[in-house]
Amino acid sequence: MSEITREQVEHLAGLARIALTPDEIDKLTGELGHIVDSIAKVSEVANADVPATSHPIPLSNVFRDDVVGETLTQEQALAGAPEHDGTRFKVSAILGEEQ
Fold it and tell me: Where are the domains of the chain?
């Protein structure tokens, strides 16, 4: 099994801004190790002779026609916004610090 450490899990949780309990860190340490091992197994058989597959059944033209329909005016779209500048929605910053 791949060696994923508690410190690595704590570091990833910090980057993702997720608060984890010690029990959650222990559980995720094992689960992430299992995930890394599973990816390694797939990588062993995925070589140049095996074509990439995004879907098991070939699909073609699964999109509908792009037809213009009724849309909101700018005023209608902004009418329910808690804050706007007349042309755009205004939102507060969500990242408290730069990385």
Answer: 6-45
Q: Does the pTM of the predicted model rise above 0.85? A: no
Scanning 1-99, the segments in alpha helix (DSSP H) are: 6-16, 22-45, 74-79
Structural domain 6-45, CATH architecture:
Orthogonal Bundle (1.10)
Q: What are phi and psi of 24, to 5 degrees?
A: -65, -40
Contact 10, 25 (CB under 8 A): yes
Tens digits of pLDDT across the chain (99 residues): 678 999 999 999 999 999 999 999 999 999 999 999 998 888 888 777 877 777 788 778 778 888 999 999 999 999 989 999 999 999 887 776 654
